[in-house]
Amino acid sequence: MHYSIPDTQECTELNGSTYIGYNLHVNGEYHCTVRYKQLHGLNEQLKKHYGQDNVPPFPPKKYWPLTPNQIEERRSQLEKYFQLVGQNPLLMNADIFNKFLLTAQQESSNEKVHEVTIDVFLMNECKISVTASSGESSDSVLEKVCHQINLPVMYTYYFSLFLIKREDGEITIIRKLQDFESPYISQKNIQGTHKIMLRKSYCDPEYDLELMHDRVALNLLYVQTVSDIERGWVICPKEIHAQLATLQARGAKKEYLELARTLKYYGYTEFRGCICDYPVPDSRVTVSTGHRELVVRTRTVNGDTKETSFKVTRMRCWRITTHNDLIEAENNSLETKSLQYDVAFEYLIAKDKLQWITISTKQAILISVCLQSMVEELLIKKAGAKIKQVCIKQGILIVFQPCEQRNGSFSYIRRDGSSQIIAISQSSSADTLSNSTPNGSVTSPVKSEPTMSMRRLSEKLSNLSKTSCKNQPLVENDAFEGIGDDDL
């Protein structure tokens, strides 16, 4: 998960006083605007439930109005706090943390909770409409969708909801919707026309074998596979393509899948229009992730395709770098330009030789999420667990519960200073949450430096020689395996 606070805004309360709002972005998209005291309250509750030793340091209170430099310092500290929470599976998967983010998103949307119809599409454009609350979480909506199509409960979390953009006949996966966000609000907030689509959530094709025994799950896999082949994400020779067409005409879905599973890049996610510093700087490449590897494809001068496979077990660590370029607006204020992202990983290319590989793309965060998913699946399999069980440390597992089975509550502090008790099991926040008048006359954002988030799977690494990431937390990949020259 990639958290950033690229800028702040000055908000006005009903009594005319002002406060600083911190604009939290998750996985590259704006999520909510929160006050310091809201985050302070969240931190206190996390410490109470999980112990102070498990919660990262939180910026101290200030008893006088902050100067611009102090605001920037606090922004940076809060951003680092979120990044450290995001690197701790115990906190990142905590119901309190996720419910706080969901409630904060609803409050920031200034929209009263109401009943809505959410349209979810399969990859063949088949529409599934479900009735939900406007503030309902992604997991809750996913469970409703899967229930409506009669998918067995045990297979629900082999699938996820994704925001997808169609443009010029091409499909771009924007991001996977997380449980701490409302699909309705997230779809409404993002610029452009986007659809919510149901796709499988895993990378390891071995999971297919279990799902193919169920008729509904088999159909979901089939529909996605047909779409991936039609888009060229799966390399399909002409003779195999003819066989698949025959099977498709016969409605032989299982046989179609069994044949498709033998094809190159089956089950991979493709990212086009990337710039990579490998094999040479500024190489235009297509990136594919899946089956425990990241593949970089380049076109040679002869028109041939050169492929390089980077195994996830040989990636020591990786990071996301955010470039916060600010521009001067007409009113002389500073505004954030569209953020630029890089994903870089440190790769064991030979015995005792590590090299950083950097990929620049608008989908850098999604590539990072795919890497994270592949590593988590490796660890889950090693622990003998199932999808949606999270390996914490020393072999201890947190077993996920469906939305309706969750319990407990926490105190949510609103931006106006009032507080209310939010039930964890609620599919949405209480109506009273969004009854207040919107806070938010925006003034000039405070300039921020480029930020970096590391995928945390273990402990900190030694410092890198690269100046730009000198003070950033570098962390290991638990699935990293040492290799010898004979293995290369």
UniProtKB/TrEMBL annotation:
One of its GO terms (cellular component) is cytoplasmic vesicle membrane. One of its GO terms (biological process) is protein transport. It is found in: Cytoplasmic vesicle membrane; Early endosome. It is a peripheral membrane protein. CDD domains: FERM-like_C_SNX17 (cd13337), FERM_B-lobe (cd14473), FERM_F1_SNX17 (cd16121), PX_SNX17_31 (cd06885). InterPro entries: FERM_2, FERM_central, PH-like_dom_sf, PX_dom, PX_dom_sf, SNX17-31_FERM_F1, SNX17-31_FERM_F2, SNX17/31_FERM. PROSITE patterns: PX. The keyword Lyase does not apply. Belongs to the sorting nexin family. This is PX domain-containing protein. The lineage of its organism: Eukaryota, Metazoa, Ecdysozoa, Arthropoda, Hexapoda.
